[in-house]
Design goal:
Layout lengths: L4 H11 L4 E5 L4 E4 H17 L7 E5 L4 H12 L3 E4 L6 H11 L3 E4 L4 H10 L4 E4 L7 H6 L16 E6 L9 E5 H14 L7 E4 L6 H14 L2 E4 L5 H7 L5 E4 L1 H8 L14 E4 L6 H11 L4 E6 L3 E5 L13 E2 L4 E5 L12 E6 L11 H7 L6 E9 L5 E6 L4 E3 L2 E3 L1 H9 L4 E11 L3 E10 L7 H11 L8 E4 L13 H7 L15
Parallel strand pairs: 1-10, 3-4, 3-5, 5-6, 9-10, 9-11, 11-12, 12-13, 23-24
Antiparallel strand pairs: 1-2, 7-8, 13-14, 14-15, 16-17, 17-18, 18-19, 20-21, 22-23
Length: 514
């Protein structure tokens, strides 16, 4: 029996053949589940005809479109390993992934064909195909004449189905292969946990080169037989306009902040919604409360990463605690350990370790790295820092590499950010450590004000002194127009550290700000 994730999805496609799987909002095109399956079959036939076989990598750098989703399904169907890339990646980033993944085929935007062709040739890619944002290109043109039937290639559950490349903030991006079993187990868990049904309508405004948009949002809808309202890109005004037609929305915290800027967002417009979900970056408690006050909805925050898919979440039915990412999903485990690997009691922060059927088996061709990242008994070291409550809710306090050690004492950025974000007039903040001649690292707050707000450094430091131990109080507050973010809304703290590296100079000192 095949362990292909596609066979699981195919059951849904056939059961709901005549129902609408996807409505492309901008162009008004509609795809039934039968049409989506037929397109995936034609594309799978073309990929095989181009020389790709079971286990080969398929690299893809294209804009979001229904055809791009069908291409992913075709890769699953043909037993290929889907390797998506951010369309914003430049030549050097693309070259590294191609040479590391060694794909058999590469699908690109036709506008970049000539730029990327030499890179593909150098990496040994057998064939290049094109696909643009309107679903046009050699890929769909050549597939149009293929029969709309293709039996799924038999694969084992442990065989790789996709490979995501991590952001590479600590070096070259690493390939994280995810198996058919990883994808299937996580999709089943999420559909059940969030009570997805064929009656749902998911407003899909996320990119699909990333786990959030593809392996969380799209998987839930496809497996449940739900309809997706498909937006090529997030647009706050358009999302608010479409909310009365939807029942579920998934976004990153930045999106929720933009939605709150729309005066037309209110309880009436969200009356038909049953669930708002947030992930990919920490959701501040202040934003959570502001959204609840405006709409009456409590955003469900969950936690995952490329290597582990979704691992914990606040409950669909039960208490959703702002500032936490909930409990482990069924079958998943979490524990908190100190630097020596000893398990810590509730309330004490340490390294977050995870284990479960959703967790990948190791990075692509990095055996030494895998020995570092996995314990002998199979726990994966996420690189996150956090603590568990007495009843099992996980709170994240930062990344291990973002931990600030000032005067020999540990400061967890999230704790300080929560205090600053609660100050009236603050839109958001990022707390970083910067080199300091006396303390080693100085706690530094980078703050974005609300429009026309008058909040100043003194007010922020006063709030911190009231609620935090003195060593956690920022030495300085820097105000900026906006925080640098990656495409999924995560603040790029390394970039902030590079920009502000000389802030304290060789003679800097001070206690709790200036």
């Amino acid at each position: 029996m095949s362990g292909s994730f596609f066979t699981l999805l195919q059951n849904t496609f056939q059961h709901h053949a005549d129902r609408i799987a996807l409505e492309e909002v901008e162009r008004g095109r509609v795809f039934t589940f039968a049409a989506l399956e037929a397109l995936s079959a034609r594309l799978a036939r073309l990929l095989v005809r181009q020389g790709a076989g079971r286990g080969d990598r398929l690299a893809v750098q294209v804009e979001k479109s229904p055809e791009a989703l069908a291409l992913y399904l075709a890769a699953l169907r043909a037993g290929l390993v889907f390797v998506p890339m951010n369309p914003a990646y430049r030549a050097g980033e693309v070259s590294w992934i191609l040479e590391n993944a060694e794909p058999a085929l590469f699908v690109v935007d036709p506008a970049r064909m000539e730029e990327l062709r030499p890179l593909a040739q150098r990496a040994g890619v057998r064939a290049l195909l094109t696909l643009d944002a309107q679903g046009r290109g050699s890929l769909t043109e050549e597939a149009a004449g293929e029969p709309a039937e293709f039996p799924p290639v038999a694969v084992a559950a442990e065989d790789p189905a996709a490979m995501l490349y991590t952001s590479g903030t600590t070096g070259r991006p690493k390939g994280a292969p995810l198996s058919h079993g990883n994808l299937a187990s996580n999709a089943r868990v999420l559909v059940e946990a969030w009570e997805f049904t064929a009656d749902d309508v998911l407003l899909h405004a996320l990119p699909i080169y990333h786990a959030h948009g593809l392996f969380v949002a799209a998987h839930c809808a496809l497996l449940a037989g739900a309809t997706m309202l498909w937006l090529r890109k997030f647009d706050a005004a358009r999302v608010v306009e479409l909310l009365p037609r939807a029942t579920v929305f998934m976004g990153v915290p930045t999106m929720y902040g933009r939605l709150l800027e729309r005066p037309e967002l209110d309880r009436e417009r969200t009356a038909g919604m049953r669930l708002f979900i947030s992930g990919s970056a920490p959701l501040s408690p202040e934003l959570w409360r502001a959204f609840r006050a405006r709409t009456g909805h409590e955003i469900l925050e969950r936690y995952g990463m490329s290597e582990i898919l979704m691992h914990t979440g606040n409950p669909y039915r039960g208490e959703r605690r702002p500032g936490t990412v909930g409990r482990p999903f069924p079958g998943s485990e979490v524990k908190i350990v100190d630097d020596a690997g000893r398990e810590l009691p509730p309330g004490e922060p340490g390294h977050v370790l995870v284990r479960g059927p959703n967790v990948f088996r190791g990075y692509w061709r990095l055996p030494e790295k895998n020995r570092e990242e996995f314990t002998p008994d199979g726990w994966f070291r996420t690189g996150d820092l956090g603590f568990l409550s007495e009843d099992g809710y996980l709170t994240l306090v930062g990344r291990a590499r973002d931990l600030i050690i000032t005067g020999g004492l540990n400061v967890y950025p999230r704790e300080v950010e929560d205090v600053i974000d609660a100050v009236p007039g603050v839109r958001e903040s990022a707390v970083i450590g910067l080199p300091h001649p006396d303390f080693g690292e100085a706690v530094t707050a980078v703050v974005v004000r609300e429009p026309d707000a008058q909040v100043d450094e003194a007010a922020i430091l006063a709030a911190c002194r009231e609620r935090l131990a003195n060593y956690k109080v920022p030495k300085r507050v820097v105000f900026v127009e906006e925080l640098p973010r990656n495409t999924m809304g995560k603040v790029q703290k390394r970039l902030l550290q590079e920009r502000l590296a000389t802030l304290y100079g060789a003679t800097g000192s001070g206690e709790g700000g200036t």
